[in-house]
Amino acid sequence: MTEQATLIKQINELRQALELHNHRYYVLDDPAISDAEYDSLFRELQRLESEHPEFASPDSPTQRVGAKALSEFPPVSHRIPMLSLNNAFTEAEVTAFDRRIRETLEIEIVEYACEPKFDGLAVTLTYENGRFAQGATRGDGYNGEDVTANLRTMQTIPLRVPTSHALFEVRGEVLMLKRDFQKLNEKQQARGDKIFVNPRNAAAGSLRQLDPKFTAERRLTFFAYGVGAVEGTALPEKHAEQMEYLRQQGFKVSSEVRVVEGVSGLLGYYSDLGNQRAQLPYEIDGVVYKVNHVEQQARLGFVSRAPRFAVAHKFAAEEAVTTLLDIEVQVGRTGTLTPVARLAPVFVGGVTVTNATLHNEDEVRRKDARIGDTVAVRRAGDVIPEVVRVFPDLRPANAREFVMPTHCPVCGSAVIRLEDEAAARCTGGLYCPAQRKQALLHFAQRRAMDIDGLGEKLVDQLVENQIVHTPADLYKLGIAAFAELERMADKSAGNLVAAIEKSKRTTLQRFIYALGIRNVGEATAKDVALHFGNLDALMSADEIHLMETHDVGPVVAASIAQFFSEPHNREVIEQLRAAGVTWPEGEGKKRVAGHLAGKTFVLTGTLPTLSRDEAKQQIEAAGGKASGSVSKKTDYVVAGSDPGSKYDKAVELGITILDEAGLLELLKGKENDENN
Ligand code: IVH
């Protein structure tokens, strides 16, 4: 083989390997290699491509965020229109849908494919000879916008597919998973940026970023639900089989696709999925029924803009209209002043709602919500109800505007609003009883320490009567202390003490979340718990090390470091531990407790006795991290015989270089450390 042929082969192999691992990670949720290994493959490919620009290719995994920012999205006309679906809201409408189909097809029983109705944005992806060539939004159904560069950044969109149809159009939905939405909003909040109302809006905003760099930062997911124009190899004859085919081509397809028969099958699916709705990783607003046989679909055809062979059976509306009686200000755990709408009671999303959030002052202005207005309220899943919009036409003459107070309504401290933040804050800190109460409620909540029975009424009394100042105080109280409080009988006081006792056995993740560190929600608590594996490592980490955690940026890192630098917080943590709060050590997958916690190692060359995996295992067992590439963050490079370029890099950066003996010495250091 010529040198050039070897190089091309190497580049192609790297590209294939990276696409395979992308697919395993993002589509199958089943990664086969570590992030570090992935990174080193990625960097190797980047290096080869930059040294040999003649072999660059737009469908290389390195080019997902390659394109330049646009000034606008060029129009695209769809080969096959992207139609809408007719809606059904009642069982009678579903029954009528099925009857029309049976009559037209002259058959007794119809076979349907059922699937979720994703609440995202429809897009169409065009593959030419197996390569992703263009992606567009639905637009008006006939003409959409070319968002290829942005779609290319999404790891769930394959850049190549195994079957080389001359033309292959895949249709589906771009959405943001609930988990990614939650993380995005945590980040937005930390930066004082706009909070997205729901995953759909967040996905829409992210897809329509003119600079693909910004789309890449937002985690979007593509689910395929159909095909458009196809030329070349024929597709299977049933919709559900086509979905399976799409899965084989590397696309993410909902695992909730089912084949059923007749109306009873449809309604059974509707109620099953309705029950699972809250547990699904994405938002849905109903289900879609499609006649399964493609040939039958063709016979049924279309009426105006929607197919006769499919219908969307929507879940009950989760919005309701009511009157905004007042806007009050609530002081949160970190002092944030949130305007809260007091509403005339209204039934929405399965519960009666009397309060809804208005997020912050800017939101009140943007929605132009005034006291006395008629408003639409939404309750999505188990999130806090919110005011969606107002009806200015129905505004009474005496409607009043909301004014943010200049002093905390609870403790009277000054209220400040930093220039780059959306939130106004009470400056009282833990002097402010509202903040103290919220800190305790947060600590006790189910997802944190899970102290059953420690509700708002009790916390109010405990704080107002100065019985409890910090969470640690809870563990000092006996039955007698609680029994003296209002509405507490001996029995409930006993239950509460038992619940507090039980809460002592927790997990690191819950404990970190319970501390109420600003900008650290559940997801972030989990990430840092996994990353550091033990509390001491986390408490002693500086901002640089904190930022090595997946999804932790400078703002969150600063919050965490700031929290642990506060002697008062360290004291409370010590008291909690002294009271017997514990969790299984070494919970972290990536790192466990150990004297090498926070240290990063890079291995290069062949070691005399240890295999690379053994060395890696031992480093990780001691709490260290084995990384694939040398950077300024690397603490040690362990070099064996025939070391690679990593060795040179380590020399260049002045990083400590160890041989195997040196590594073993360091690994043994444990006893010494503990005796110190
Ligand atoms: S099929 C010809 N399947 O619903 C039928 N659409 O009102 C084409 N949608 O804009 C659509 N989930 O974005 C289909 N499983 C699903 C869907 C789905 C969500 C959206 C789609 C479209 C709208 C149609």
Number of extended strands = 24
Determine the structural class based on helices, strands and strand pairing: alpha+beta
Bound molecules: 2-(butylsulfanyl)adenosine
Count of helix runs = 26
- Beginning-to-end CA distance, first to last residue: 60 Å
Q: How large, in whole angstroms, is the Cα Rg?
A: 29 Å
Runs in which pLDDT lies below 50 for 5 or more consecutive residues are 671-676
Largest sheet properties:
7 strands, antiparallel
Strand residue percentage? 15-25%
State mean pLDDT (0 to 100 scale): 90
Work out the oligomeric state of the chains in this entry.
single chain
Shape: globular
| Helix share, percent | 25-40%
Kindly describe this structure:
By secondary structure, the chain is an alpha+beta fold. Helix content is about 40%, strand content about 20%. It is built from 26 helices and 24 strands. Strands 14, 15, 16, 17, 18, 19 and 20 form a seven-stranded antiparallel beta sheet that branches. Strands 2-13-10-3-9 form a five-stranded mixed beta sheet. Strands 5-4-7-8 form a four-stranded antiparallel beta sheet. The longest helix has 25 residues. The protein is globular, with a radius of gyration of 29 Å. It starts with a helix and ends with a helix. The structure holds 2-(butylsulfanyl)adenosine. The site of 2-(butylsulfanyl)adenosine has 15 residues, from strand 3, strand 8 and strand 13. 2-(butylsulfanyl)adenosine binds next to strand 3, strand 8 and strand 13.
